[in-house]
Design goal:
Elements: H1 2-22, E1 32-47, E2 52-54, E3 58-72, E4 75-92, E5 96-99, E6 104-107, E7 113-129, E8 136-156, E9 161-165, E10 173-188, E11 191-202, E12 218-230
Antiparallel strand pairs: 1-3, 1-12, 2-4, 3-4, 4-7, 5-6, 7-8, 8-9, 8-10, 10-11, 11-12
Length: 231
């Protein structure tokens, strides 16, 4: 049932993105720009309560395809599809139970719970770029991100638990915003290398709240280092 809901939502989110790109039958080739990105990143959690606290950053990775449809020489609507691997570490001030797929584990105060998450991320935003200066073009991209969880693993080192399915502890949908800045280095024609820096933050609670767990709002933050090919 849950997988069918996810599939339906993915279609609903992907369809407007595709319509945005192909809605005009008279597009010129240079009005649409495609790019492939493979971005190493660091991610961490922030909390709105002292009962649950961030306990360090996690390395991660995201890759995918972006589409920029220019409605002016320097302005474009931007979207795409990315697979986001991220996560974070949390500690709690009280004893709580963590629900894995097949069992529940008790976590004592101060013990670390590590989350490793995987999402399909669909960004929708606005891209602004400068005119080309020599071989370089500078850009910024601001927008929103819809995320659908497709996997989650958890570790509790103090309980000798590693790599167990922890999706019961995670909300399956999230929404956030992104800010990217960077530059494009022209290789000739429409092809360029892209480099940049990006920041993302969630609006919706990453984790679920139930029973004796603290009622908190856990937001994921990440900084990614952009590396791509634009064509």
């Amino acid at each position: 049932m849950k997988s069918s809901i996810l599939t339906a939502l993915q279609r609903k989110l992907l369809f407007p993105c595709l319509v945005l790109l192909v809605s005009s039958p008279y597009l010129k080739a240079q009005e649409i720009q495609f790019s492939l990105w493979a971005d190493p990143l660091i991610s961490w959690y922030s909390s709105d309560t002292r009962e649950s606290m961030n306990d360090g950053i996690r390395p991660g990775f995201t890759f995918g395809l972006a589409f920029d449809r220019y409605f002016d020489e320097n302005y474009a609507f931007s979207t795409g599809v990315f697979l986001l691997n991220s996560g974070g570490n949390l500690t709690y001030s009280d004893t709580i139970d963590i629900r894995f797929r097949n069992f529940t584990s008790t976590v004592n105060p101060g013990e670390i719970v590590t989350y490793r998450t995987r999402y399909i991320s669909i960004p929708i935003g606005l891209k602004l770029r400068t005119n080309q200066i020599g071989y370089l073009t500078y850009f910024t991209n601001i927008g929103f991100d819809a995320r659908i969880m497709v996997g989650g693993k958890g570790d509790i080192p103090s309980n000798d638990i590693e790599g167990e399915n922890i999706t019961n502890e995670l909300n399956w949908f999230n929404l956030g915003f992104h800010i990217n800045v960077g530059l494009e280095y022209s290789l000739g024609g429409e092809t360029a290398l892209g480099f940049g820096l990006g920041y993302e933050n969630n609006f919706i609670d990453t984790t679920t709240d139930y029973n004796d767990q603290p009622v908190d709002k856990i937001k994921q933050n990440l900084i990614r280092f952009r590396i791509g090919v634009i064509f």
